[in-house]
Amino acid sequence: MSVDRDRATLAAFIGGSVLAGGNGVAIRFSNRELDPLWGAGLRFLLAAALLLGLMAALKLALPRGRALAGALVFGLLQFAATYALAYYALVELHAGFGQILLALVPLMTLLLARAQRQERLHLAALGGALLALAGVVVMSSAPLEGSLPLLSVAAALGSALCFAEAAVLVRRLPPVHPVAMNAVGMTVGAVALVVAAAVAGETFELPDRADTWSAVLYLATFGSIGVFLLYLFVLRRWAASRAAYSFVLIPIVTVVLSAWLDDEPVGVGLVFGGALVLLGVYIGALRTRERDSSPA
């Protein structure tokens, strides 16, 4: 029984990482026809509708009071700010490059948690941060098609920072069922993205091309709901530090898919710099947390 349980958990871990690895590529396809803020808003409007339906099926109540306020703030940070920056970044950046930058999330989370006195900081975390920073410099200085889109790189790093801060923030919020938390969060995030798209003067239109519809539907279902449910399944069976290894696996999947589907150039700079980033994340965040969570 335990062997079957471990195999099911490993399958969910790999499946969730593969599905999440396709998100960056799907966003690139979405951005080719839809304006970025509107594309992100459309994705989360569809995903929120599915989650609200799941809430109704599970007979879950909406959070109230401080719990509701916390879910709203979480949604603005996790879904509105994070994905507004991510979609903007992936207009110019290839998905593999962008996903490696987002792999910094565990390390950023550790540093932010220490700054907000939630966790201890180890020398390994500082060393990992420096190693990951070196990897970003190598990737950013590698030859690219045309000039380096510095604003896009900054947006990708800002997206990772918002994602990390949301992870730190949620630990301070009143406990809410994960489905309800994400249903409320995605709803308010989608509304904020649509409002931002209107303020930015973006065009509100539904996709005309089949590949754009495929990308949006993938992001709303497999890329959002599917990844979320598989991650919850893994977290119930593995320690959080072990589940966090998905941040190392996801960029590998994204680079392969992006090179195959989006003709992303995979040069020495991307490979070597990306390896430094992933090694820095492992040393600075994942290995540190695994050691802290192991029994004395």
Classify the beta-strand content into a percent band.
under 5%
The separation of the N and C termini measures: 28 Å
What is the C-alpha radius of gyration, as a whole number of Å? 19 Å
Helix/sheet category? mainly alpha
> Which descriptor suits the 3D outline?
globular
Q: Point out poorly predicted stretches.
A: none
Query: What is the N-to-C order of secondary-structure elements (H for helix, E for strand)?
Result: HHHHHHHHHHHHH
* Total count of helical runs of at least 4 residues: 13
Average pLDDT across residues?
82
Number of strands: 0
Helix content: over 70%
Largest sheet: none
Could you explain the architecture of this structure?
It is built from 13 helices and no strands. The model has no long low-confidence stretch (mean pLDDT 82). The longest helix is centred in the first third of the chain and has 28 residues, at 65-92. Helix 1 (2-21) crosses helix 12, helix 2 (23-31) packs across helix 5 and helix 7 (123-141) runs antiparallel to helix 13 (268-293). The protein has helices at residues 2-21, 23-31, 36-58, 65-92, 95-102, 105-115, 123-141, 150-170, 178-199, 210-235, 240-243, 246-261, 268-293. By secondary structure, it is mainly α.
